[in-house]
Amino acid sequence: MQQAPAADRNKQPILEALIGCLGAPDVFHGYVLEIASGTGQHVTHFAQTFQKAIFQPTDFDPANLTSIAAYISHHQLHNVLPPQHVDITSSVTSWPGEHHPEGCDVIYNANMVHISPWQTAIGLFEAASYLLKKDGLLITYGPYAEYGVLQPESNIQFDLSLKSRDPSWGVRDIRDLSALAEKNGIALVKKIDMPSNNKTLIWKKS
């Protein structure tokens, strides 16, 4: 069970944002696909509250898959499926495992698009277009620039730090993500301000 301190800090605020979008935990019973589940702290925290929903965690890193499985076992969660290896830059039709036959109600992705090349954002929206039901939601979380403006100073420095580690990384602009979403029949419907200068973005497949 790997532990990311940031995930411990933000999992409850994100859960509260999810409740605001998806409705009461005892009512929502959809199928939720998480892309880039990381350590597994988010998906297992959400699943303990949304006990009628089914969660499918995924990740690219085999070490993360082991951690996710350990969290599922530790919390004895029966509504979280075994984690699957997924390369978000590959065609969704080549992903392993079975997809929900009726499509996903929700795809959730946190802290990925800025700590990875732009191709991961392309893959995420293409996957959402292919896998989401009509009116299904793509929910993303992280820091974002808004129409050419990145603030506050801490986010500017974070962006510079990311680009110094890898020039293909960096805080993404909502304008660019919205253009990518539009190409895939998806629209931004809500922005939620979160702690530590992050945002939860709610996208809907039309």
How would the blueprint of this fold be written?
Blueprint: H1 5-22, E1 31-35, H2 41-49, E2 54-59, H3 62-75, E3 84-85, E4 104-110, H4 118-131, E5 132-142, H5 153-165, H6 174-183, E6 186-194, E7 198-205
Parallel strand pairs: 1-2, 1-4, 2-3, 4-5
Antiparallel strand pairs: 5-7, 6-7
What would you note in describing this structure?
- With 206 residues, the protein is α/β, with parallel strands linked by helices.
- The protein has a single domain, classed as Rossmann fold.
- It is 38% helix and 23% strand.
- It has six helices and seven strands.
- The chain has a seven-stranded mixed beta sheet with strand order 3-2-1-4-5-7-6, sandwiched between helices.
- A hairpin with a 3-residue loop joins β6 and β7.
- α1 packs parallel to α2 and α2 packs parallel to α3.
- The chain is globular and about 45 Å long.
- The termini are far apart.
- The model has no long low-confidence stretch (mean pLDDT 95).
